[in-house]
């Protein structure tokens, strides 16, 4: 024996972690993919400057954070994957972040549509309008909204421009879920499955 755990032991450990995450869930699953940025910018689309890096404000630079930048005064946007919503239901959006002093402001939208509609969106939920985050440390943000007549939607952050130099908006731990109770960040269910697959593949290569 080389002291390495068996594949069965690794699988049992992973299944236990998954069960713990699922059983401790408050509210519905996180509807936004890749919010731990394990797959770089997959599932995000932007017309601005986006990258995944680290910063001392966020876990002393030990964990990745999204940096969404703008070099001019024209609004730039970054959008999530599209997701399903239940009509006339309350949802919560949580995230953590900060910005540099060059940022004029930022907005957050839920852009939705009804089943059968083909436009990108027909219903607008303006969750955050023209605000700034902390420039000297990490800030936690939590907003709630009712889906109304929306069947499917996507989340959009706007970097509204710079007042000189490059404006940087830092975003981490995006969590959008059914319900109104506060909770710690958790990855989307699909991303939990991805992490399990990666762990098993790593084990099989060793």
Spans of at least 5 consecutive residues whose pLDDT stays below 50 are: none
Element pattern in H and E: HEEEEEEEEEEH
CA-atom Rg in angstroms: 19 Å
- Helical stretch count? 2
Number of strands: 10
Essential attributes:
206 residues, alpha+beta, 5-stranded antiparallel β-sheet
Written overview of the protein:
This protein is α+β, with helices and mostly antiparallel strands and 206 residues long. It contains two helices and ten strands, in the order H-E-E-E-E-E-E-E-E-E-E-H. The strands form two sheets. It has a five-stranded antiparallel sheet, with no helix packed on it. Helix 1 runs antiparallel to helix 2. The longest helix is centred in the first third of the chain and has 17 residues. The model has no long low-confidence stretch (mean pLDDT 90).
Give a summary of the structure in a few sentences.
It is built from 2 helices and 10 strands; from the N terminus they run αββββββββββα. It has helices spanning 7-23, 189-205; strands at 45-46, 49-53, 65-70, 76-84, 90-99, 106-113, 123-131, 139-146, 152-159, 167-178. The strands form 2 sheets. The chain has a 5-stranded antiparallel sheet, with no helix packed on it. It has a 5-stranded antiparallel sheet with strand order 2-3-10-5-8, with no helix packed on it.
Itemize the secondary structure elements and their pairings.
Elements: H1 7-23, E1 45-46, E2 49-53, E3 65-70, E4 76-84, E5 90-99, E6 106-113, E7 123-131, E8 139-146, E9 152-159, E10 167-178, H2 189-205
Antiparallel strand pairs: 1-4, 2-3, 3-10, 4-9, 5-8, 5-10, 6-7, 6-9
Helix pairs in contact: 1-2
């Amino acid at each position: 024996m080389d002291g390495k755990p068996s594949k069965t032991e690794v699988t049992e450990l992973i299944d236990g972690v998954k069960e713990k995450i699922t059983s401790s869930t408050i509210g519905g699953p996180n509807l936004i993919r890749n919010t731990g940025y394990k797959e770089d910018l997959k599932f995000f689309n932007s017309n601005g400057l986006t990258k995944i890096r680290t910063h001392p404000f966020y876990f002393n630079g030990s964990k990745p954070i999204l940096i969404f930048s703008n070099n001019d005064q024209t609004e730039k946007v970054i959008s999530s994957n599209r997701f399903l919503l239940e009509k006339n239901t309350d949802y919560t959006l949580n995230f953590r972040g900060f910005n540099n002093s060059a940022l004029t402001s930022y907005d957050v939208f839920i852009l939705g549509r009804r089943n059968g509609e083909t436009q990108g969106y027909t219903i607008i939920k303006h969750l955050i309008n023209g605000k700034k985050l902390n420039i000297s440390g990490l800030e936690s943000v939590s907003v709630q909204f009712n889906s109304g007549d929306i069947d499917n939607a996507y989340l959009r952050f706007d970097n509204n421009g710079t007042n000189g130099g490059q404006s940087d908006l830092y975003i981490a731990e995006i969590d959008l879920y059914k319900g109104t109770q506060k909770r710690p960040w958790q990855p989307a269910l699909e991303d939990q499955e991805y992490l399990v697959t990666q762990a098993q593949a790593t084990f099989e290569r060793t």
